[in-house]
Write a structure and sequence with these properties.
This protein is α/β, with parallel strands linked by helices. 43% of the residues lie in helices and 9% in strands. It has nine helices and six strands, in the order E-H-H-H-H-H-E-H-E-H-E-H-E-E-H. It is globular and about 50 Å long.
Amino acid sequence: MTLRALIFDVDGTLADTERDGHLVAFNAAFAEAGLGWHWDEALYGDLLQVAGGVERIVHYARLYRHQPDGDELHALARRLHANKTRHYVERVAAGAVGLRPGVARLIDEARAAGLRLAIATTTTRENVTALLQATLGGDALGWFEVIGSAQEVALKKPDPAVYTWVLERLGLRPEAALALEDSRNGLVAATRAGLPCIVTPTPWSETEDLHEALVRLPDLDHHPARPDRLVSLDDLRQWHAEAPISGASAPP
């Protein structure tokens, strides 16, 4: 089937937002609340296995701080996450986070070729807006026909709900689109929704099992067979054309 749309994940795929964005913002929120909590990079790498910022805070508080689960903990996590989002947006607006190699170029190529663009993420819409406007310009939000975020879909990746939601609003069958992800959770979500998926892992996800990926790339500026050549829109079309059509679920 002809490729008609590209569906991008955000954190890790459009930009490696974790180290200089989210991690710093989490720790700023913890310090602001006077909790004495601090996440280093090694711990944060483990916590990234938990999708969703509120869920990540709750998991940490229960497992590492031995706090009892319940309404009080979840309310605290929501307050911390709201403040964390404020710190993150401020950092992104200040230029602390940049797009990964090849992302802006391929988005430009896709727009020029008339491909539809969408986003499927488990981060907040506020985070998406901040990143797109800071890195691609004030009009960039309008380039994406559908944006599925934590506000639209409650279930987090690896659940396929956000991809299913995006595909329904695009009015496309999954085999007409191509997902771009960076992690195991994202890859599983895409493939469970029936989407072929290209993965560009980050240092946070490079050791994960990514065997279901249609193609694994270091980034969108490096062709897997020709490291001296940029990945082009024609490459994406070719890989998409070679993808098996399958609605089978991937293992978690």
